[in-house]
Amino acid sequence: MTDQSPIDMISPFRSALSAAGFLGEVETDTALRSAMSTDNSVYQIMPDLIVAPVDAADLVRLAAVLDTPPFLTLPVTARGGGTGTNGQSLNRGVIVDLRRHMNRLMGVNTEKGWADVEPGIVLDDLNDRLRPTGWFFAPETSTSSRCTIGGMVSTDASGKGSRIYGKTSDNIIGIELARAEGLLSSMESPPGWAVAMLAGAETAARAGRAAFIAHTPRLNRRFTGYDLERACPPEGGFEWWRLFLGSEGTLGLISRIRVKLRRIEAGKRLIVVGFDSFRNALAAATPLIDADPTAVEVMDERVQAIAESAGILRRLPRTLQSLPGQKIAYVFVEINGDDPALLDLRVNHCRQIVAGLPGAGATHVAADLDEIRDLWAIRSAGVGLLGKVDGPARPVAFVEDCVVPPENLPAFVDEFLAVLTRHDLGFGIYGHVDVGCLHIRPALNIDADADREKLVAVSDAVFALTRKYGGIFWGEHGKGVRGAYLRDWIGAEAYGALQGVKAAFDPAGRFNPGKLVSPRDDIMGIATTPFRPFNAPDGDPLTRAFRCNGNAQCLSYSEKTPMCPSFKATADLRHSPKGRADALRAWHVAKRSGAVSPEMEADLLGVLDGCLGCKACASSCPVQVDIPTMRSAFYADYFARHRRSIADQLTLLAERSSPAIAAFSPLLRPVWPLLARLGGALVGSVDLPGRIAPRPPADLHLSEAELERGSLPDGTVILVQDWFTALFDPDLLADFVAGFSALGLRPRLLEMLPAGKAAQTMGDMVRFRQMATRLNARLQLAGRTGRPLIGMDPAFVMQLRQDYPKAGIHPPAVQLPQEFLAAEMAAGRIAARPLKSGKVRIMSHCTEATGAANAPALWKEVFAALGITAEAPATGCCGMAGLFGHQTRHQTVSRKLFDMSWRRHTEDETPLAATGFSCRCQTGRLSGRSSRHPLGLLAQALAG
């Protein structure tokens, strides 16, 4: 490659792509480039251009333009889910985003057991689509909700169950490449233009095959990436496509993958055992293999303690939960099979083995698939929480997928931990003990030079240990910048053969340059590759942006999970919590150095405007990267320097003036439809509420005198409104009054004061604090009556619980209605009243479902006490999210989200309830179906 900067080629390259008819996006947006500059590692490399091809033909157009003289040296790197732990898909030049559009299941052959997929399809998405056929794609990764098949192929990923299922490379039948000349498929005879290229690769591969085999241990987690052994089978032939498995995009662009499928086994059991120490848990692996399990996983005491403090372990069966201060290391043993009798025998054999193991304590066997899924989720969630550790040093993935023969694992771990002790490093451990792979993540502060030196020293020491114990340094997550060790590990002769293969497929060395193999001395180093900023100054409002570690749970493909709606609707990385955190971090760093440009701020404003403010990231993200709160901080800074739009000014005025608007509602009601249309035109919104609520009956209001007396009759419940439902949702108040009254309670209404939600969202923090302080004083006064406070809208309740404490304001407990009712019923203060059986469907507000995870289940309990079956389907965001769904510029995203997750639940005759005002509005305007608050359905049922 030449010394010409990629930046100099970007503008003419964009023009050339357009002229060639490239159909996908071609972007230099600074926020998107920032999002693409990081992964789940500590590294950061800023690309120059992002392209998102729509299909294989588009990839060929891209390759053809790249193959023209002006762009022959332009670096090109494919990217899938971006979940790499060592910078696998980070590079300068052009990043090819394959997840955004190339995510299709192209075909399934259920007779032969294979499927053709595009590289951007997500693993869980693929298996969800395959499930009705009875087949699945076997490799199970902890990032299965967002990792792509293309990324799995590139890193030869594996995970739980690999002792039985193997790695990704064991489950691939063939691939298709996109080249400048066209498509090259391993499932077909090569075209004439590819013959010489393949011959050159074969010559190099055969020359180095023997040396390659001599340097690769015979392990289940075999070495892959330029696999000269399998590419040149001893019986003859050349399976060139096997060279690409684990090659991390360094050989070219993959456009299609044929995956081998396995039958879904009918039976599944999960045995979870608590051990008194990690050492005893680790020693259990070898004996447990005798039960022929699909997987044996371990979680050490440190991960257990982190998960315990986060409340995750409360989801474990009570017998497995620890006592205060007790340390437990958990072992998870999964056993699968089709023969129920044989499955039970294997489970019993496993339990007999456990009974004789030192340190084994409580044992739980799960047979229900939902419970098994939940138990595995606890293990996965505990791992994600490693990034939530407080302080500047946090667990880092850089020596965390070493593999040694299982019989060598205890001695290897002893020496590994001794290395960490010498460097005074804390750590967490989990992993796949059945195949000798443990994930050990030392805690480092990457901002500190001393800890960067420790990263190198520990890496060198652990690399030497893997060789000592007959293992592999890169056993599961690929190599990335750790490919710097490849030449020493594989030896000069074999490495020379890898260089020959690279030269055959990529003579210019332009595919993911600096990774794994290069003809030049430009391999990236573990300490010389740029690091991402790791910590913000103490007390900085953007701290969570720096703590985002790229674990990327926010990139889940599933429409059933709330986080993150804007990413689900767009598949655009910048419109995710991770992408927004990257953009905010980049802006923060630039601001501190005086390098913020108008373009950067404009791009950042664009991605923040696309956030629905649902707050799912504040609770669902393992490290709680709360984008809405950080957006408020950025807006506060930005609008201290810039004038707000008329739309924002009018919205802020409406919130501040809402008590006065409510007071004058009798005068405003006749003209409100006209005012709503005029207001919509002024603020760029559609479908604003066309009516204003009448004033509630005077006897429903709690007077100031009643509050001051501090004594209210037994059975009184105090209803607390937010300003939006108080003004625009009279049916909600009617449902609350009817529902509580039907249960023999006395609902009373607290005078409405705005909570400051709009001001907080828009960064008007002075007025937010003023409104929040006034409301808190009123809530404190109401709380002193000793009567329960019930919030009428879940988003409002979550604001009081999540946002007020962060602002140093601590209101009394304000409950969701189902929380109060379920507790009263459980205590016997509200009697169950079995009625004629029936069914209702309750749709939860996404902020409620993530902020109070048991909220949907509590509604089911309440309705069950009345003999009514309540469905509470898992859904994502409905797409309204306050004002977001009303704003004209957001209609496409808003409507797509409703179609993805909510519409199908509105299309039958089941009585429908939605807990959020936004959700009821969205359901009505997009489905034509009216929905009530659950209390309305409850009142209706009690009325007979």
Question: What's the tally of helices?
Answer: 39
- Secondary structure class reads alpha/beta
Tell me, briefly, the overall form: globular
Number of strands: 24
Q: Biggest sheet: strands, sense, closure?
A: 7 strands, antiparallel
In the CATH scheme, what's the topology name of the domain at 267-445 and 471-481? Alpha-Beta Plaits
DSSP helix fraction: 40-55%
Mean pLDDT: 92
Low-confidence stretches: none
| Intertermini distance | 79 Å
CATH architectural designation of the domain at 267-445 and 471-481:
2-Layer Sandwich
Residues in β-strands, percent: 5-15%
How are the strands of the largest sheet arranged?
15-12-14-13-17-18-16
- Specify Rg, calculated over alpha carbons: 29 Å
CATH class of the domain at 267-445 and 471-481: Alpha Beta
Cofactor: FAD
InterPro entries: 4Fe4S_Fe-S-bd, 4Fe4S_Fe_S_CS, FAD-bd_oxidored_4_C, FAD-bd_PCMH, FAD-bd_PCMH-like_sf, FAD-bd_PCMH_sub2, FAD-linked_Oxase-like_C, Oxid_FAD_bind_N
GO molecular function, one term: metal ion binding
Domain 4Fe-4S ferredoxin-type: 602-633
Describe this structure in words.
This protein is of the alpha/beta class. Among the domains are: 267-445 and 471-481, Alpha-Beta Plaits (2-Layer Sandwich); 542-642, no CATH class. It contains 39 helices and 24 strands. It has a seven-stranded antiparallel beta sheet, sandwiched between helices. It has a five-stranded antiparallel beta sheet with strand order 5-6-10-8-9. It has a four-stranded mixed beta sheet with strand order 1-2-4-3, covered by helices on one side. The radius of gyration is 29 Å and the shape is globular. The chain starts with 5 loop residues before the first helix and ends with a helix. The mean pLDDT is 92. Its cofactor is FAD.
